[in-house]
Amino acid sequence: MKIKNKIPNFLTLMNLLCGCIAITMEFQGRYLIVVVLIFIAAFFDFCDGFLARLLKVKSDIGKDLDSLSDMVSFGVLPGIILFNMINKSYNIPNYSIININPIPYVAFMIPLMSAVRLAKFNNDARQSECFSGLPTPANTLFIVSLSMILLQLNNNSQFFMYNYFIEIVTNYKILIIIAVILSFLLVIPTPLISLKFKKSSKIDNIARILFLFLSIILILLFKWASSLLILLLYYFVSLICFFIKKKTLNSLN
Fold first, then answer.
1. CA torsion sign, 169 to 111 to 22 to 144?
2. What is the model's pTM?
3. Burial class (CB within 10 angstroms; exposed 0-12, middle 13-18, buried 19+) of 155
4. Residue 55 has pLDDT above 70, yes or no
5. Under DSSP, is residue 97 helix (H, G, I), strand (E, B) or coil?
6. Residue-wise DSSP of 138-195
7. Angle at 28 (CA atoms; ends 27, 31), nearest 5 degrees
8. Is-contact 169 146, C-beta < 8 A?
9. Over the Cα atoms of the chain, what is R_g?
10. CB neighbours (10 Å) of residue 135?
11. pLDDT band for position 196 (50/70/90)?
């Protein structure tokens, strides 16, 4: 067996390792390290597929291994992050069932729906060029950005929308609504552009460049607080892209 055949799977395992370490860091309250590890995991997740295509060593085992690793880094981990945020929210009721408050466990809808999302991805050939439903890495980055808003705003209480964002990320009702919405977005078959630049249509590549350019602007302006705007932008650009492609196809027919 050639070494090059092992490289993509090694990177996939590094993604898994980052997810495992990030979970332990989340329980220790080392949130900045969690964020760094999530971005490293996302980098490995991008590179393993890229190298598999480049080296022409794609395999069913590699595909399954990728989804299993993503389930930890981008399924279980965001569920735990959201669980901690709900559990620490200022207005959470003091309910108890066998001395356990059941409310924060709503966050584990995220791992459940992530599992469904990844299983659908593995068995849907149409998702090689685009996604059907919110990708798990994008979902994870959105959730972790919510926790980072607290750190950002605690160091800058003069931010003009400070009270508004604090209300969002510390209110258990809003966090539960976010958990439910994101869970549905993971499995609802909405066509979304892939950010991997392949030999695809010109419209797809223009949509990717436009999304990345506008996202960078939003990040520079609002930092972590830009996450919701970027998520909405992702859906908007994707829907416009597929609308144009459908209209072009209809005109050709």
1. negative
2. 0.85
3. exposed
4. yes
5. strand
6. HHHHHHHHHHHHHHHHHT-TT-TTHHHHHHHHH-HHHHHHHHHHHHHHHHS--EEE-S
7. 90
8. yes
9. 19
10. 23
11. low
